[in-house]
Design brief:
By secondary structure, the chain is of the alpha/beta class. Helices cover 51% and strands 14% of the residues. It has 2 domains: 219 residues, Spore Coat Polysaccharide Biosynthesis Protein SpsA, Chain A, CATH 3.90.550; 226 residues, Four Helix Bundle (Hemerythrin (Met), subunit A), CATH 1.20.120.1760. The chain is elongated.
Length: 483
């Protein structure tokens, strides 16, 4: 499926930010607005783009080229009548689009889930528009829908119950509706959609019904979109993108210390050429420097470096999400984290073995075993129950997640032990807490999977609450989560 992007307008309200460039090239966290649209659509499987250009269109072509740098194909359609309504810009693509296509605006920042759900939605209409139920703001295009169909649309309609997000799936029939409107002197896209609506040929897709919980992020994120018209919109978009890049349900150190530090660093890095992979390499260099210092007995300096690693550890992931630069190699991040983290405990144990014999080495071995077992329990749980990770499945797990055995807890144990001149007891504390975490997560995994097996074995005895659990809507603890 191809995407048609409208990028012909001038954007007068942001003249002080455009600085002689077209509005779609305004920067937002290291990417231009139109780059964000392209990369977000690419995440939804769109690989070919047609961009309608007008005002200073050559600068857009110079910036984007043929799309190779983004891994997509880009072609351009020139609209010399760009001062007319955006319906005219859409109409310029009539001769090259005779199939179902995506229609997007170059100045709308949006959540990729909206487009993914919209593409997969069941529709027989020529137009399906993603709508939002929030309160309208000045400049929003209003929509009145009834039973899933658009009744009326426009900026000045008398009655509305939702708003236009500027994200559409259309067939080539849309062009005939726009042509009808243009013949009447109405040149806005909304006028063409209104024609389709009068013909009963325009549906809505309600983005408020998109599941807000994202398992990989361990938190609820409402589907969002922003029409960038003012400086305030840019500031709001930056705030939303940074916040949505932060994972939820973290331990206390990550929540209250690491998060603000990471966000500060990300804001500084997004406008540079620093890539997430480069940050990952830097983190590993610092981490293994700490390992070396543990081996050499420079325990306090080594311990402080582990906190530096902790503060930076989320930067690469956040930078990747903010700049939409996820890569397959980025999936290896957690494996490398696991490796350098456990190298600290081994190095500390080897250092302490000069004084305490083999016991520290045995303790570090237990830490590796217990941590590995906890991680395996989480993977086993995820293979069966996919809607939420184990650490965020119920209130008990969510509470324990704040203190469980993991890097941020262990480095605190190490620092306290070193400051008290008792680093041997740090290893004892870490091994004990890793055992507690392993016992907790294994017991919770066994309980949840046992109940899951019973649901499959005795499906006729399921009650309403149990049926919901089997469908992945509530946890086995009986605590209801948002859908």
């Amino acid at each position: 499926m191809k995407a048609l992007i409208i990028a012909a307008g001038q954007g007068c309200r942001l003249n002080d930010l455009t600085k002689g460039n077209p509005k779609p090239l305004i920067q937002l966290l290291g990417l231009s607005l139109i780059e964000r649209v392209i990369l977000t659509a690419k995440q939804s499987g769109i690989g070919e783009f047609l961009i309608v250009i007008g005002y200073l269109g050559e600068k857009i072509k110079e910036k984007l080229g043929n799309g190779n740098m983004y891994g997509v194909k880009i072609a351009y359609i020139e609209n010399r009548e760009w001062q007319r309504g955006n319906g005219v810009s859409v109409l310029k693509a009539k001769e090259v689009l005779n199939e179902r296509f995506i229609l997007l605006m170059a100045d709308h920042v949006f959540d990729g889930r909206i487009l993914k759900e919209l593409i997969n939605s069941d529709t027989r209409s020529s137009v399906i528009l993603a709508i939002d139920r929030r309160k309208p703001l000045q400049g929003d295009t209003l929509v009145r829908e009834k039973e899933g169909r658009i009744v009326d649309i426009g900026k000045n309609i008398e009655e509305s119950n939702c708003i236009d997000t500027g994200i559409f799936v259309c067939t080539s029939k849309l062009f005939s509706y726009i042509e009808e409107a243009v013949k009447e002197g109405k040149t806005e896209l909304a006028d063409g959609i209104a024609k389709a609506a009068k013909n009963g040929d325009a549906q809505i897709f309600d983005i408020t019904k998109i599941n807000s919980y994202i398992p990989s992020m361990r938190k609820e994120i409402e589907a969002f979109w922003i029409n960038i018209n003012t400086k305030k919109d840019l500031i709001e978009a930056e705030k939303i993108l940074i916040e949505n890049a932060c994972k939820g349900r973290n331990d206390l150190l990550a929540t209250y210390v690491n998060k603000p530090i990471e966000n500060f660093i990300v804001r500084r890095f997004v406008n540079t050429r620093i890539t997430p992979n480069q940050v990952t390499i830097l983190i590993n260099v610092v981490a293994y420097t700490s390992t070396f210092l543990f081996l050499k007995g420079h325990l306090l300096f080594a311990s402080l470096l582990t906190f530096v690693v902790s503060f930076m550890d989320g930067v690469d992931g956040k930078l990747s999400r903010v700049k939409i630069t996820a890569s397959n190699i980025g999936n290896m991040e957690h494996a490398f984290d696991y490796l350098f983290e456990h190298s600290w405990y081994i190095a500390l144990a080897i250092c302490l073995a000069n004084t305490f014999g083999t016991i520290p080495v045995l303790l570090s071995t237990f830490i590796l075993l217990f941590d590995g077992f906890s991680n395996y329990c989480g993977r086993a749980f995820g293979k069966v129950i996919k809607n939420r990770p184990l650490q965020d499945y119920g209130r008990i797990e969510q509470l324990f997640r704040k203190f469980d055995g993991r890097k941020n807890s262990y480095i605190i144990f190490i620092l306290i032990g070193i400051l008290l001149n008792a680093p041997f007891w740090s290893l004892i504390a870490i091994s004990a807490w890793s055992l507690v975490s392993a016992l907790f997560y294994s017991s919770r995994t066994i309980m949840h999977l046992y109940r899951s097996d019973n649901l499959k074995r005795f499906p006729r005895k399921r009650g309403k609450r149990t049926r919901a659990f089997a469908d992945g809507k509530v946890p086995t603890t009986g605590i209801t989560h948002s859908p």
